[in-house]
Amino acid sequence: MHVKIISFLIYLIPPFIVAGPFLGDLSLSIVSLYFLIETFRKKLWGYYKNFFVYLFISFYLFILIRSLFTSEILLSLESSLFYCRFLFFSLCIGYIIDSNTQFNKHFFISLSLTLIIVCLDAIYQYYFGYNFLGFEKVPPYNYTSGLFGDENKLGSYLARLMPLFFALVAIFHKDRIYFFWISMLVLVLIDIVVFLSGERAAFFLVLLGSFILIVFTKKFRLPRLIALIISSILIFIITEFSPKIKNRMFDQTIESIGLNKKSDQIYLFSPGHHALFKSGLKMFNDKPMFGQGTKMFRVLCDNEKFKVYKPEELCSTHPHNTYVQLLAEVGIFGTLPIIGIFLYVCYIIFKNGYYIYIRNKNIIPDYKVCIYAAIIVNLWPFIPTGNFFNNWLSILYFLPIGFLFCKKIIKDN
Fold first, then answer.
1. Coil, strand or helix: which one is 15?
2. Considering Cα of 109, then 111, then 112, then 114, what sign does the dihedral take?
């Protein structure tokens, strides 16, 4: 009975994180606590014998200890003290997959329905100016945000869940032909809606995830390629009839970087991002080994020592890049575990690609390649990002990782 209840809570994670951070974090906390209790009750220590777990534990212990030596201990502990719940959440997903034979199927249904509803709602808002709930586009640029209201998260949500969705398609592709058609529909919708959202970083992540799926999976490159071609044609048609979205995705990008004739300086993504990156790197240079402590960027970015006045005076809660934030707040020692995970996953992906193209076989199943693609998308270094320690974003980071922790063998080919 407990397994069914916890399974149901995990099924609700995709729609809950659309509704807002509270419901998603509440479900995650319950799931995490359940697995922690089950660990001692059923001695589930085998789930902890994993490369990702070892790196996570080293990262967690470091940020926790570092928080104790900051000038704002309580503030810093808000990010670090209970960060361990994300590990238990991922481990619990693996345990539930082993314990509930219907979990993958039911989670696929939940995720598919959520993605379809989110996409259709966003398309409706794009064309009519408001969505099914009456939410209007996000001012001042009238971005399409759909069910996310005044938060510009739509593109990021879809881009980060796309590889996980495709992993579940890989698991079920032999069961029913409708899985193929559902996957084609959802993939095309995701591509189009992320473009319509105006989130340039999210659109890049969709292309990055698509590239990995097309190049490094053995049996599922064709569906993703077909969906991408269909999406590209539809996006081209949309841009021809909508100069605003074309201006946002292309013209503004060139202008923000400084590649137009009006600018005499090249920026990393935009003048604002450039200033935040420089401020974060100043904090890193101040304490390169251990950083300033989690959640300390927001405290110190107004400090004269770290202020950046050119190209503009700017302060924020985080520097809008995962690795700049990690270097600023936890230094080299805290950043290395995250870099280790990213490089390890890239190594596995490229090794699998070598075996596919040189020896005509894959060494890991395609669904795992999709999960690894999700990790690469989430940890890609060269784009603007949200706060690494943000609860909403962390759920999206750790949700796909849970599918790597199951003990039973899942065959997809």
1. helix
2. positive
The CA-to-CA distance between both ends of the chain, in Å, stands at 32
β-sheet bridge partners, residue 130: 136
Q: Which residue has the tokens 């075996």?
A: 355
Q: What are the CA-CA distances from residue 267 to residues 186, 249, 259, 311 (Å)?
A: 35, 17, 9, 9
In this structure, what DSSP letter does residue 230 have? H
Contact of 280 with 321, CB cutoff 8 Å: yes
Lowest mean pLDDT, pick from 162-166, 179-183, 383-387: 179-183
Residues 302 and 319: their CA atoms lie apart, in Å, by 12
- Contact between 92 and 402 under an 8 Å Cβ cutoff? The reply is yes
Residues 73-119 have pLDDT tens digits of 999 999 999 999 999 999 999 999 999 989 998 999 999 999 999 99
| Sequence-ordered list of residues with C-beta below 8 angstroms from that of 17, at least 6 positions apart, any chain | 23, 24, 157, 392, 395, 396
Q: How far apart are CA 42 and CA 40, in angstroms?
A: 6
Amino acid present at 290: F
Alpha carbons 159 and 369: distance in angstroms, whole number? 16
* CA distances for 107 relative to 9, 35, 64, 165, angstroms: 10, 18, 33, 10
Give the separation between CA 239 and CA 247, rounded to whole angstroms: 9
- Tokens standing for residue 49: 């014998």
Distance CA 279, CA 259 (A): 23
Report the SS3 class of residue 143: strand
Q: Is the peptide bond before 311 cis (omega within 30 degrees of 0)?
A: yes
- Residue type present at position 356: I
Give the three-state DSSP class for 299. Answer: helix
Token pair 């280790």: residue: 340
- The 10 Å Cβ neighbour count of residue 361 is 9
